[in-house]
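Proteins fold reproducibly. Next comes a concrete instance:

***
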Amino acid sequence: MDVNARLDRETALMLWTQGSAWFSSEQNKKGRIQVGLLADLAVLSKDFFSVPEEEIKGIESVLTVVDGNIVYAAGSFSADAPPAIPVLPEWSRW
């Protein structure tokens, strides 16, 4: 692939966040960290802006917050993980 045809990481992230909000007509609700917008964010396992390009695909969320609530936590954030969702119906666990 021609290196000149690639997006820089900042533009790619902006398109993933603000662009997705625009595409769903929710740019006034989400897509940026801003007072009054939904508090959805992810803490990543590696720095998206500094890892070698090949490592980007291996980046994972270690903490995910949706509307101000922790919905996923791993690694050093494990103590903050929400309880597991119960298996329903009850008989399906066996």
